[in-house]
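Session log. Operator J.P. requested a structure for one protein chain; no other inputs attached. Running the standard single-chain path with token output.
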Amino acid sequence: MSSNLFLIYFGIFIGCLKSTHHTIHTKASDEKFPPKGWKIIGSCAADFNKDNFLDKAYVIQEEKETSIGADDECIAGDPYYRKELIIKFGLSTGGYTINHKSTAIFGTCNWGIQGSDPFDEISTRKSTLKLSFSTGGTLRSRLSYYFRFQENDWFLIGYEEETYQVPYLDQYIMEINYLTGKQINYEIIKGKRSKSEITTLQRTKLSTLDGINALKHKEEGE
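Structure written below.
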């Protein structure tokens, strides 16, 4: 048990990494990772399922550019490369088994700042998985999604939206806790935080990871 806890604390300490291409052998499936033609662009580690074994999450990106159709919702911008989220659970044998794969949250084109890649980073907060994106033009927003593994699936339990106008430093922040149904809004003007405005939202069923498209989620104001 002590060795397992050491691995967990060490994984939390190293946090999340911007990764280069490397190979991981998972004893459960004996697969090489990432697949041929893909590269790792972000990774992090935590005990997501709370079994005292370190788990890992990766965002991988296809090395080949994907063409965008005329009916896509994004404007023309930087070359688009498909992305996929891969979550692996640690095993008592020391290997890993794939728990989840998902592409929905990334969308199907570039919807980031001025048509760029929107993906910022993958990270953790305790045993929660965090995915962050940026979008906009001179008025920009940083979007952060918090997912928790429970009831054998991944659910959206929190959302943060930080909006700011370039080149100014003032920030307008919205935080939603879907577990409590509370929304908090506040501003940071000239380095000073305003009083928080707290709103109680209508409680709804938690959304799953596979049901979230970050661009549509922001546009629909959920």
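Operator note: The CA atoms of residues 129 and 147 lie 5 Å apart.
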